[in-house]
Amino acid sequence: MRNKISRIHIVNLFFMLNLVLFYPTFSYANLTRDTLIRENKAVDNCKKNLSCLKRLRNNSQALKALFYLYANENNLELAHRYRKLSAQQGNGESQYYLGLYLYKQAKIKQAISWLIQSANGDYLKAQEVLAYMYYKKTQINSHSNRPNNINNQDYNYKQAYYWGYRSAMLGSYKGQELIARMLYYGVGVRANNEKAYMWELIRKKNSRYKGSAILVSLQKSLNQYAIKRVTTQVKAMEKQIAFNRSKMLYYGN
Fold first, then answer.
1. Is 33 in a helix, a strand, or coil?
2. Which residue among 6, 49, 224, 229 sits deepest, i.e. has the most Cβ atoms within 10 Å of its Cβ?
3. Model confidence over 186-223: pLDDT tens digits?
4. pTM above 0.90, yes or no
5. SS (H, E, C) 81-101
6. What is the C-alpha to C-alpha distance for residues 225 and 227, in angstroms, rounded to an integer?
7. Per-residue pLDDT tens over the stretch 130-154
8. Which residues contact 182 (CB under 8 A, 6 or more apart)?
């Protein structure tokens, strides 16, 4: 019985260590749509009145507004303080810009933690940045929370695909471009020409599209039955993306 209890304690300890090693060092609850609507109404009622905004201590949008007011006055210390408070209240936009700010300060671990927090709240820009940071392995290998016996390159590519896919499902042109490329070349994921072709067709409809060598290659290599299958998949995927976008919290993404 004693040995069984000891084994249970060891398993629990191992689980807790994994939480510390593999996940961000902090976590704040992200905003819900209803909360954001209430916050915006309260901020609008303040009409940029400083004392009114300061009274909204737990309002992430008010704290974000205070950041911009102090930043415009070049009071960077107070501006940074209010941006961090807004991020801690779960504001995805503030979390994203705080992450970028810390990244420029070479505080990589904190920066990535804030970007992940923002991305988990479906802030599109954070998802795009994380996808490309992991794909390009920009300063991440030396700051990774993963143990040394894990293949960091493999881990980075898997993370790149994960965040790229999440952003693509919210309609991100950058995310769709990245995962199409990864699927075509088999980088971090098993190569799949049909899926790559699907994402190429989806992003082709974006106004930023300027042609793709991958799309041309796939059009030549896929047979007519595969192309027909993919065309059907594109329609279903576009409906899903439109639905996902209708549920987005941050319309400015």
1. helix
2. 229
3. 998 999 999 999 999 999 988 888 889 999 999 999 99
4. no
5. HHHHHHHHCCCHHHHHHHHHH
6. 5
7. 999 999 874 444 444 443 334 578 8
8. 135, 157, 160, 161, 164, 188, 189
